[in-house]
Amino acid sequence: MSVALTSTAVPTSIRSDKVRVMVVDDSVVIRGMISRWIGAEPDMEVVASLRTGLDAVNQLERINPDVAVLDIEMPDLDGISALPQLLAKKRDLVVIMASTLTRRNAEISLKALSLGASDYIPKPESTREATAAETFRHDLIQKIRHLGAKVRRSPVHPTASPPLAPGHDRPRTLAPAAAHTAPAPIARRSFGLLAPKVLLIGSSTGGPQALMSLVAEIGPVIDRVPVLITQHMPPTFTTILAEHLARTSKRPAHEGIDGETIKPGHIYLAPGGRHMRIARHGIDATITLDDGPPVNFCKPAVDPMFTSAIDVWQGSIMSVILTGMGSDGMRGGKDIVAAGGSVIAQDEATSVVWGMPGAAVNAGICAAVLPLNQIAPKLVRVFAGDRS
């Protein structure tokens, strides 16, 4: 169903416009399915289809892929063991971990991100389920395209922030200096005049790493107001992420529960597979979970959380848009700004993918565009009363 090495004999220069993908999975069905999907895309190609992590490590230098789709559970050498060996041989290799939705695999996938994997993707339990397979296909192709694009354009590109892997979310070549500095004068606007009563955060690709870094430094903010987060993630993964956020922030953090009262000092994470909205019940703000269709191809999505918060807090909202593919959060951010609130976006240099924050910047709604390590200090100052 698949060929072990599909194009290693072809010089890289001949296909320099295509993202070179290595598929590593012990299931011949999964390898064949992914290979067919990639082969149907004009901007990418499968250069190897391998059964074990050991095969990938041994053949990496000869294959020279841009992206590796790496299964977690394989014989001889599993994905989490192969990952550091692959990155040791090729520092800029984009690795997308693939696994079924079990708690163990979710834990391993999040651990892989801390070890240098660029992203993860949950595999459908059964490829016979057309809907699940189509979602898997869409997400995988988008991740390969956007994470691999920067590698193809910039063979030598130093990593701006070590914990974050390289990636990009723009189909056209853009000079780094222009991408990072040109939009800033257009994007910047004054912070809202009202004291923020809540912190809302949206993130996607690269988000788990960014969130861990951020919540570790905003203790004074969490103690003052509630923090609500929507991270594009499937069920089980969000459960594990919430536990990690609690440990990192040393504050209560859990998936939002339908109908629960929102309180300062707590972190609420949108559960995988459901949108998290905010509603007013009497004097309390409460969480409402929505099982409606995906928004911006995502469920949970950031926009529903952002827009619903306005009915509760009006202009007293501080929102942050972190690294991620697509434009989710931009429309909700516009509404927040129109209501008198504020938006901070992560800058391009420290984003794994500058899709979501880039869309907000280009829409001209941001009061600040900052490297990841400067967002927490800025938030602490803003919530302490400095909105300059």
From TrEMBL:
Its EC number is 3.1.1.61, 3.5.1.44. PROSITE patterns: CHEB (PS50122), RESPONSE_REGULATORY (PS50110). One of its GO terms (cellular component) is cytoplasm. It is found in: Cytoplasm. The modification 4-aspartylphosphate is found at D71. Contains a C-terminal catalytic domain, and an N-terminal region which modulates catalytic activity. This is Protein-glutamate methylesterase/protein-glutamine glutaminase. It comes from Bradyrhizobium uaiense.
